[in-house]
Target: Lysine--tRNA ligase
Amino acid sequence: MSDDTTPTEPTEAEVSEQKAVRSAKRARLLEEGEAYPVSVPITDTIGAVRARHDDLAPDEKTGRIVGLAGRVVFQRNTGKLCFASLQAGDGDRIQAMVSLAEVGEESLERWKDLVDLGDHVFVEGEVIASRRGELSIMVTSWQIASKALLPLPNLHGELSEETRVRSRYLDLIVREQARVTVRARAAAVASLRRTFDAHDFLELETPMLQVQHGGAAARPFSTHSNAFDTELYLRIAPELFLKRAAVGGLERIFEINRNFRNEGADSTHSPEFAMLEAYQAYSDYNGIADLTQELIQNAATAVAGSPVVTWADGTEFDLGGHWARIGMHASLSEAAGVEITPETRIDELTALADNVGIEVAHPIAGKYVEELWEHFVKPSLSAPTFVMDFPVDTSPLVRAHRSVPGVVEKWDLYVRGFELATGYSELVDPVVQRERFVEQAALAAGGDPEAMRVDEEFLRALEHGMPPTGGMGMGIDRLLMAITGLGIRETILFPLVK
Model:
């Protein structure tokens, strides 16, 4: 039996015709008994049977009777013997053999009449190897576990990317990589939690509905609360609430949850995404960079067995070793061929940007520096690299650099050419933080939709004293991109689509 072909979608006409036929079968099943039983008497999983008996010789019998269930993904009916490939949710498969000699004429004919591709079926019988050596169940009894009314994709060709994203359930049924990605994400997130636990961090949950957005430079989604009769925002970052917790004495904390940003969607951005943020008291941006490297390398090892991962296209990518750290202004100066420092005048930055066709909305010097860096330096980065020391006017929540005027102690981690994480020596001086917020409010008043507002409640918390702290944020979806080599819509189980 061969079922190694690749899936494609049936036409609308085929779907309509098959649904009518299958609906009639459902009606018959309901008349005779049950098309959707509440349970079936499973004794084993397909994976467990394969693990125990995968080395049987052709025609070998075990004498072991099992009851298992799976989705029919291939079938071939002959006169006195029917073959079906049953697939478990994790992709494990086993052959079911329904023979006249074992089940009788009536049961065999019912199988031929009622069972379609996509149906979940329960089978009971002996574990054997077929004449060709394929691990099989010689069925003695069977029943429908769930009747499918719509067909699976045809077993030839590939699912379109649109179908994979919009109908992820089909993607999971027919494509191994989709199942692998889901399990990789689960393994990576579990690893993050283990690493934090090893460092005595607490996992917290902070509000996703907020009366004031903050914690990042991003446009928020807004909504209305009927209960409170007030406008609310979906959070763009958990930062300001996690810092409140740090003020309260929770010195090692993290959160993994959803963030929402009302911005563009592309191969590295999604309006809704999973975010990790962590804060460690009495650390700084260097210490939190070390922790971030450990988190990512442990997650890669949990998924791939080592920090050297293999992407979906077969490319090997090394996340191991000690990652490079480069200065933003120094690397920009080298790449652009002109010295650029925190003191470089905005007219000089504007001229350089004009020369390379860069436009900056709501221009300030720091935004020009960052846009120029992305133009000149970012395309050359592939190996994991911490880009250190950002302009002060684009980083309102970050402590000023301890020895270099005009920059703050912030890094962005680039992997595969995209930003994976960011880290700070956190700004804990409430007076300076207020000044930064006021500057941001002026930008917002000037029309910058990403600028922050003055958050009086957060400032009040800071005035009670927050310890020196290192903080970091990382997109979980992007972590999976780094480990798997996939685009962001492939790493999110159900991405937002129109």
Observations:
- The longest strand covers residues 61-77.
